[in-house]
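Journal club prep — side note

Before the paper discussion, L.F. wants everyone to see what a predicted structure for a comparable chain looks like in token form. Sequence:
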Amino acid sequence: MPETLLPDAYRSDVETLWDYHDMHHAIRPTDVAIGLGSHDLGVAAFSVELYRGDMVPRIVFTGANAPTTIERFPRGEAVHYREHAIALGVPDEAILVESEATNTGQNIEFTRRLLAERGIEVRSATLVSRPYQQRRAYSTAKKLWPELDVVCASRPLPLDEYIVSIGDVNRVVDMLVGDTQRIMVYPSQGFAIPQDMPSEVEAAYRRLVEAGFTSRLVR
């Protein structure tokens, strides 16, 4: 069984990254919720909460599969998200599915294309993601859809509860470290806008890399 308890030796650094990736946006009404596909079904659940709370009139779930999700979501991330949302009471007509995207850039681009094809005008969107994906989702959206008014949101779980919900502390820390690296390197590759990174965040990232949390780093 994977471990779900965050070791004290890494807690401070992990909490530093966790807080950095939270954009701390206030939830407010937008034209659409865009649920970014991943291994985390909480993305779908929180998109449902936004719909039920009259924060959005419709939801787009976007995502095909990554190697880490194909076993859990064999029909594709967005398809399983849609099924979960319908099971939670969202009407089918309030949900659109984009089932081809395999990275965050494609999530944004393909969702924009789908909405345009349906003649749905969107000026604002709530990007619903894993907690540690918020900053990368924001920087990607502002690069690829700069005029979009973006709110970032995630299921509001404390770090330790989130780790338990995923069921594997190493997986969560690896993903946090990987997303931090992407904030650093993606702007120069044209994938995202630059983001400020405080020195304490970069130092925490480097200590966790040295500790071996490297499985989600890009080469």
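L.F.'s comment for the group: The mean pLDDT is 96. Keep this in mind when we get to the figures.
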